[in-house]
Amino acid sequence: MKIAVFSDTHGSTARMLETVRGVRPDMIFHLGDFARDADCLRREFPGIELHAVCGNCDGPGGSPLDEVVELGPVRALLTHGHRYAVDWGRLDSLCYAAQERRCTLAFFGHTHVPENTEMGGVRLINPGTAGRGRRLTWALVEVFENGGVTAEIRDL
Fold first, then answer.
1. Could you give the CA distance from residue 138 to residue 7 in angstroms, rounded to a whole number?
2. Rounded to whole angstroms, how far apart are CA atoms 156 and 154?
3. Is there a contact between 136 and 155 (Cβ–Cβ < 8 Å)?
4. Considering its fold, how many domains does the chain have in total?
5. Backbone φ, ψ for residue 138 (5° rounding)
6. Helix intervals (H) in the chain
7. What is the pLDDT of residues 85-103, one digit of tens each?
8. What is the pLDDT of residues 125-146, one digit of tens each?
């Protein structure tokens, strides 16, 4: 299963849409800021499963703050990250939240800095920002039937 992961698009959707057209993933994750950008993905790619969460720049309602997604043999926590203090460089709260939900993957954004690290048996993946910053990035994640996972941060 091939998953395209985006975060912090902040209204800049052109490169994200171009990337999805080129990669044709099986699933898309949008990790907030702005939730309406996930709606753009929904309209443009109705045949691709999409999971989206709200960020700190999104109003109430619409997408959830967190979501757990079953990816075959793997469970993943999706969140923007602002509720877990990731902007202070601490990933322990996010790791604990994933462990509580029996997730071995945790996807987050908010910092605009790409990250692909492991802590406490949880792989923590931040695709960076697809909308604002010097370096625009996204993540390509593959989940295999045996539970194996590969993740790569790519430039937009």
1. 7
2. 6
3. yes
4. 1
5. -150, 175
6. 14-23, 35-44, 92-100
7. 998 888 999 999 999 999 9
8. 999 999 988 999 999 999 999 9
Q: The tokens 């048996």 sit on which residue?
A: 121
The CATH number of the domain holding residue 121 is 3.60.21.10
Query: Residues 6 or more apart from 125 whose CB is under 8 A from it?
Result: 5, 105, 106, 107, 108, 115, 116, 139, 141, 151
Residue 116: strand pairing partners:
125
| Global pTM value | 0.96
10 Cβ contact partners less than 8 Å away, ≥ 6 residues apart: 33, 34, 37, 57, 129, 131, 132
User: What's the token pair of residue 133?
Assistant: 């910053």
Please tell me the number of Cα atoms within 13 Å of 151 on its side-chain side. Answer: 19
Does the bond joining 6 to the residue before it have cis omega, within 30 degrees of 0? no
Q: What is the pLDDT of residues 31-61, one digit of tens each?
A: 999 989 999 999 999 999 999 999 999 977 7
For 147, the domain range is 2-155
Q: By C-alpha distance, which of 68, 2, 3, 13 is closest to 35? A: 13
